[in-house]
């Protein structure tokens, strides 16, 4: 079920009403870029409603918690210059090609991750960097999480890391997941993935697909699959910096008045700009339910 314009508008108004009531300001509590996004991006608000099965109260709570999480984790300060460069360049996680639905693949190379060898806080920042970059790349369209488990064993299985990834989709990146493709998973990891399934709601479990070279074509076309997956793409990972546009309008430059449908007091919010790749304010800016 898709939310209509009225429901999106209602969510936006409830958010700014809560902000005004609790903090007396629409521009000081959260990061300005996130306030701009709430104000301007119908698509972002739609994702919260869809993610929460059109329950307005739940959508508002998750939207609020997401903005708080983004502020606390300084998401807009996470970029290629602030994440661990060694982690960035080793290629344990990257975006490459698309699935058959046209969704970008966020690839996790299991054999390049060994539990306990990386600083977990730095690793989380790396993951956020790639989530944010994928969102900017496709303007918030869904992605497919591709676990490349070829040549992996128990030492590559990191339950804490996996749970963190799942929680990002579940709590802070709503309606962002198309599929979870698990490629060539060794039988020795079967028990662990049964536990992982238990962390997911039913509709998310339905997105998990176990694939091999023989059936990957059902989800990823050959020209979009790496040679190591049985495809035709001879890509070798090399980090390429992201090119970002810098919007020239600041949150304080303009304001518009938005009133609630029930006629309650007006609230000042940011102006209406087009949805951003501009859903980040500067070069450093950067579904599960």
UniProtKB/TrEMBL annotation:
Domain CRAL-TRIO: 80-237
Pfam families: CRAL_TRIO
InterPro entries: CRAL-TRIO_dom (IPR001251), CRAL-TRIO_dom_sf (IPR036865), CRAL/TRIO_N_dom_sf (IPR036273), ER-organelle_contact (IPR053012)
Organism domain of life: Eukaryota
GO CC terms of this entry: endomembrane system; endoplasmic reticulum-endosome membrane contact site
Name of the protein in its database record: CRAL-TRIO domain-containing protein
Lineage: Eukaryota, Metazoa, Ecdysozoa, Arthropoda, Hexapoda
